[in-house]
Amino acid sequence: MAADILAVRDLRLWYPVRRGPFGRAKGHVKAVDGVSFSMRKGEVLGLVGESGSGKTTIGRVILRLHKPTAGSIAFDGRDITTLSRRQMRPIRRHMQLIFQDPFASLNPRMTVERIVGTPLDVHEAVLAAGERKTRVEAALEMVGLSPAHAVRYPHEFSGGQRQRIGIARALILRPEFLVADEPVSALDVSIQAQIVNLLDELKEQLGLTILFIAHDLAVVAHICDRIAVMYLGRLMELAPTDALFAAPAHPYTEALFSAAPDPDPTVRRQRIILTGDIPSPVAPPSGCVFRTRCRYAIGACAEAEPAFREVRPGHFKACIRDNLVLQASG
Asked: At residue 51, does pLDDT exceed 90?
């Protein structure tokens, strides 16, 4: 079995809410609240949930773009939780980010060659000009673009091509770990499949480990080995992809499945409507944070936060109810 490349333990990121003339903290926005998981080398882990559930924040904390409030992050066996910016610099070449918006993440004043080559300027500044150009062209070819595209600007490309440029920039240093932050959500459906297939091929070719953040269950089902379901800054369920789709163990996962469109018009599934909006992370509900929208909630759900426990081999959930028969996907 492959070794763990990432281990996150009880990770928290709380933003203070300041009020009054002296800016005193009157509370906290609990963006990430006690999340734990690990990833094996070469694995793709999907992170899904509603907008505002904390998915993107987790990815950015793992990359140390945000400093965690508590908990620990171990990357390739080294604790990076409290490292300074200078100490993190040699590690950053091994962990890179693919952004959600393929246009806003590219500088419109820079050519593709400058954009893709920027990580080389930061981490390999002594590289000769000829070798730098060769590396940039190789990165473009790796993502299905032509070396001739290097002299063009971002506005000259389609959305899918711009995302390929972003992927080339992330891969030019040959990192071990990628955080893909909803990399296809801003693209047309026909282009989404191309980018997902590209990432799948690059994962096999380069031995990448990918934290794939998304809200589309069909996308994560195609590329991910395991799926983690988030709600209001906490993990609700974590399981191998096939097991999660065949037999979800948490009511929130069931609700996500019921909301996903099915391409088969003959399939008739019960639609589960979640009442109300996602609660405020400043004042989350007591006990289970999902209980205020859960149709299976009982009085005990409000009394204590449910433990994130293993209910089947490799299948974890944060729910006290074990007698539920939940609707699977499809």
From this structure: no
